[in-house]
Design brief:
Radius of gyration: 19 Å
Distance between the termini: 14 Å
Strand order of the largest sheet: 1-5-3-4-2
InterPro entries: IrrE_HExxH (IPR010359)
Largest sheet: 5 strands, mixed
Helix content: 40-55%
Strand content: 5-15%
Protein name: ImmA/IrrE family metallo-endopeptidase
Number of strands: 5
Organism: Marinobacterium aestuariivivens
Length: about 260
């Protein structure tokens, strides 16, 4: 937490932080209205946690949630979110931006203009997070992404998955959806979000894996759909369980865009 800048204004040594840990953590939690009431997400019945059987630290997850809300709170959006804004058409429109080298940054701008925060915040140890969605105290949706897997295809699927939660489950709700997308989505709401995310990225009638026989075929299909070929290649690798598919092609990174362009 100290290395990530969670304790604003504290410049002391690790030993001093240990001595004043209770005070610093208390100030950190009180930085947002919901800080203390959030409680560890795994202990809250109103938080939907998609995770594997790995040992998750609920207190690290709690700290990450507070950090996300603090960052969203510091970001002033010019537009007030209108419930019902996010639907399949909205998601497909946004997916078209994946073709650009700056697609993830354009996505952030697009969401902000519709009253939706996009926060990039690395996960803390033992949290195994890819993304989450929640609301600020003012009712603005917040999509948080960790970029734990620094791949363009993972960025777009995670973003669409969290947008699907807004479209299907979040409007009118005060809950959190917290996702480790390496985990199987046994929960019906997670399955619904997965399905809508896939449909937004590649409409079912255009998902023809038997035709994506090589890198050139993937490029041609991606051009026809006006999306990044990384999206098609990433889904093929996932479904076939072959992460060597297409060799070194279609493995674009994302994190550097936010580190140099929008903060991370």
């Amino acid at each position: 937490m100290r290395k990530r800048g969670y304790f604003e204004g504290f410049a002391g040594s690790p030993q001093e932080l240990r001595e004043y840990a209770a005070e610093q953590v208390g100030q950190f939690l009180s930085g947002i209205k919901e800080g203390f009431s959030l409680q560890p997400a795994m202990l809250r019945t109103s938080a939907h946690l998609r995770s594997n059987d790995k040992e998750t630290d609920p207190y690290a997850l709690w700290a990450w949630q507070v950090r996300v809300l603090k960052l969203a709170q510091e970001e002033v959006l010019e537009t007030t979110y209108q419930p019902g804004t996010v639907n399949l058409e909205f998601m497909r429109r946004l997916t078209q931006e994946s073709w650009s080298d700056k697609g993830p940054l354009i996505a952030k701008e697009y969401l902000n203009k519709h009253g939706i925060h996009l926060v990039i915040e690395r996960h803390l140890p033992k949290t195994y997070l890819d993304g989450a969605v929640c609301k600020t105290d003012a009712g603005q949706p917040v999509i948080a992404m960790t970029l734990r897997h620094d791949r363009l295809d993972n960025f777009w699927f995670t973003l669409m998955h969290e947008l699907a939660h807004i479209a299907l489950h979040l409007d009118g709700s005060e809950t959190w959806f917290i996702d480790d997308l390496d985990a199987s989505g046994a929960d019906p709401m997670e399955q619904e979000a997965d399905q809508l995310a896939q449909e937004a990225l590649v409409p079912a009638e255009h998902w023809l894996p038997e035709t994506f026989v090589d890198a050139q075929a993937v490029a041609v299909a991606a051009r026809a759909l006006n999306i990044s070929p990384c999206i098609l290649a990433g889904r093929m690798r996932h479904e076939k369980g072959d992460h060597q598919l297409f060799g070194h092609l279609y493995r674009d990174k994302v994190r550097s865009l936010f580190e140099s362009g929008a903060g991370c």
